[in-house]
Design brief:
162 residues; alpha+beta; 2 domains; two-stranded antiparallel ribbon; two-stranded antiparallel sheet; 28% helix; 10% strand; cholesterol binding; Macro domain-containing protein
Length: 162
């Protein structure tokens, strides 16, 4: 779902242009990193799904998650660094839900947060692009949810609040 969501493309009729996440996302460590602020369990693997199937010296994705949820800023975990693509740490209590006793391996939910820029000027190019992108994001998530009825998907987008 995260990969699908971050690849959403929309068209802003108001601006007569295509909009992708990189156009509207908040980049928390810019100019050091131009990566969008995305916070999720997959970011412990820098959004590289291939790492989920990787085994290094007998250590797999679960070993990496256990390590990284304890040492969130570690540069070297069992499968690489623990920070997300932006270089920001992933806090277990932000990306996992349904927790009991802070045991992230027993979480019953995962949380994906995609940070999008905003403006007090509701007609600014930033807001117009964000509205277009978020509208398409909603369609994409609804389609994904319909195709995966075995997974409970809840979501929010600011455009739905306007």
């Amino acid at each position: 779902l995260q990969v699908k969501a971050t690849r959403v493309r929309a068209f802003s009729e108001a601006l007569n242009r295509e909009v992708v996440l990189e156009d509207i996302c908040y980049k928390p460590l810019e100019p050091v990193s131009s990566e969008c602020g995305v916070f999720s369990p997959l970011e412990y693997f820098q959004s590289n799904a291939t790492l989920l199937d990787t085994v290094v010296e007998g250590k797999d994705y679960l070993d990496h998650l256990k390590f990284c949820t304890k040492l969130i800023t570690a540069d070297r975990g069992p499968l690489g660094g623990c920070r997300g693509r932006t270089g920001a740490p992933m806090f277990g209590n932000v990306v996992f839900g349904g927790l009991q006793d802070d045991d992230y391996m027993q979480a019953t939910a995962v949380v994906i947060t995609i940070l999008v820029k905003n403006s007090v000027d509701h007609e600014s190019p930033t807001v117009l692009m964000a509205r277009a992108w978020e509208s398409e994001f909603i369609r994409a998530v609804l389609a994904w949810r319909a195709a995966h009825p075995e997974i409970v998907v809840s979501f929010a987008a600011e455009v739905s609040l306007c």
